[in-house]
Amino acid sequence: MATPKFSKPTLNFHLDVKQRVSDYFRDSNITRSGSKPLYLKAGIMVVSFILVYVHLVFFTPHWAIALMECLLLGALTAFIGFNVMHDGAHGSFSDRPWVNRLAGLSINFLGANVFMWKTKHNVVHHSFTNVEGVDDDLNARPFLRLSPSQKKFKIHQFQHYYFIFTYSLLYLYWVFFTDYKKYVTKKVGMVPIQKMKLSDHISFWGFKAIHLVLFVAIPVFMLGWTQWLIGFFVYSLFAGVLLTLVFQLAHSLEETAFPLPSPETNSMEDEWMIHQIRTTANFATGYKLLTWFLGGLNYQVEHHLFPKISHVHYPAISKILRQVCAEYNIPYLEHPKLRWAFRSHVRHLKVLGRA
């Protein structure tokens, strides 16, 4: 099965958006990459993660405090992923390629693999957002039905009750199964991954070994099997919930579209940029503290249109994009509050489970 093709642009919309965003950076005399506040934030999060890890493993406090630190460690894992790895892997963290590579490698220390992630996220998800059979982010079968074109099972009628539990398993599933599956099959879903060089193979297995030492061997040695198992599950499950919800609240909603290619031509109805706008939504962009922690991923529309621009610029780009969308009468999807996006996601699951 070949990947779908997008229609050629018939409007000047994409040209206007790109031109006005380009004018913004030129007139403001700023780069598209991150800035000193981003580097400071990254440093705070990484150092905080190391300090919590060291205190938890080597100076283990009372069990109640230890469980809170496990939750904090899970949150920091997600925040480093949102703020450091995400921009780094997209090449927008810094204007220096080696800094971007270093930022992207942060995911390797946390158990996943940036090489595999780039294919899954940068190539597949950003190209074919919400296209069933291609976008691997829609694949939660058989536990969840996230798209109207997916097969429905009886269990799905209850999915709006148990979805949080399923999301909590993402981090464990990602680190201990899907990375290896991609490595062996050399595919992300139906899309082949780029041929791996020797250095990529060494990096894959080397960092997987480092992760096992840091998060399994050392904690088991210091704490014992039972305490490690409880702590590791609390840490991993909380990280999984945060990582999954942020992306689901941007794509799996009542308002977002789930278009399919034409069976005859294997082409999508919309041009790529409009496809991204129809399949993506923002949430709670008025909350600066939330934006700070989420690495601007609540500005998901801006991120999908300009993934190579650092998230620190999304609020400014959002104003430009809203104006152009209004001029071309193209709906700009957004939930002003986090709880509204969450409710829309739950209703989406409920409808798909009972349809």
What descriptive keywords fit this protein?
two-stranded parallel sheet; two-stranded antiparallel ribbon; 4 strands; 355 residues; 15 helices
Quick recap of the structure?
This protein is an all-alpha fold and 355 residues long. The protein has 15 helices and 4 strands. The protein has helices at residues 13-28, 36-58, 63-90, 97-104, 106-109, 114-127, 159-168, 170-185, 198-223, 225-251, 272-279, 288-294, 300-305, 314-327, 338-354; strands spanning 187-188, 191-192, 282-283, 334-335.
What does this structure look like?
It is a single chain. The chain is mostly helical and 355 residues long. The chain has one domain (35-269, 337-354). The chain contains 15 helices and 4 strands. It has helices at residues 13-28, 36-58, 63-90, 97-104, 106-109, 114-127, 159-168, 170-185, 198-223, 225-251, 272-279, 288-294, 300-305, 314-327, 338-354, and strands spanning 187-188, 191-192, 282-283, 334-335. The protein has a two-stranded antiparallel ribbon. The longest helix has 28 residues, at 63-90. The two termini are 28 Å apart. The model has no long low-confidence stretch (mean pLDDT 95). One of its GO terms (biological process) is lipid biosynthetic process.
